[in-house]
Amino acid sequence: MFPWLARSFKQLSDRIAANKLHHALLIQGPSGLGKASFSLQLAQLLLCSARQDGNACGRCQSCLLNAASNHPDLHMVESDKQIGVDQIRDAIKKLVSSAHLSGAKVLIIYSAHTMTESSANALLKTLEEPTANTFLLLTTDKPERILPTIRSRCEKLALPLPDLNTTMAWVKTQINADVDINLAKLFSARPLALVAELQEEQHFSYDTFSNGLDALLQGRLSSTQLAMDWQDSADKVVKWTQYWARLQCAELVSESIWELNIQATKVTQQLRNPGVNKTLVLTQLLDKLALTKAT
Ligand SMILES: [Zn+2]
User: N- or C-end of the chain: fewer Cβ atoms within 10 A?
Assistant: First the structure.
């Protein structure tokens, strides 16, 4: 379990041991915090037939099936866009049939806020009258988008956020390298997102961006030169610019930062046009950025 979620996990496992876990949990926290992994481990614990010290044993039939991602009593619903009513109906049908392994049954609904209104309504009855030993784990980073009727029938569990040191220490173990503290600040409550970012974007890191900016602000490089060097990572430049602006805002919110953000949004749209002159739009963006430091 992730170090920042270990305590929450222990509290739930104590309640499972005491048979006092609510049948429906709404697990909340920002994306990149570890909600999916947390829910899956919780499901595996619920399904384990020989729990040991608050953890799944790893050896019983349930645990072996889970290790093979093939447990017949663990059901999951997720969708890139919207969770449709058919997905929910299918899942409920599986859930109400008797357990294959005569233990618990678990349904995880990832990003539950993407359920349509009909999906949510289809789920209501199951939430109100769950079959015995059945658990529903809903995860979300946007709880306010979930229908009140669903929310009110779940126990809400807001997962704790890691502090900066915890994030940096953990990310370091994942990427085997030190993490830039400013970058970590931007992602502080989302360590998994930070790791994904670092792994995905090694060719154009925040360091590269930040070093280039120093050169620009000190007059060693022109905005056009940087824009030419960076045009292949144009989307990333915009993203880092927005992050950089957010970092500056921690100290001082100025009109020029505000304008920089507007320009960044505009450039994001311009870059969607395949015929766009990337060097030109990046130059304009970098000029705006340089202005924030000049004032
Ligand atoms: Zn087990």
Answer: C
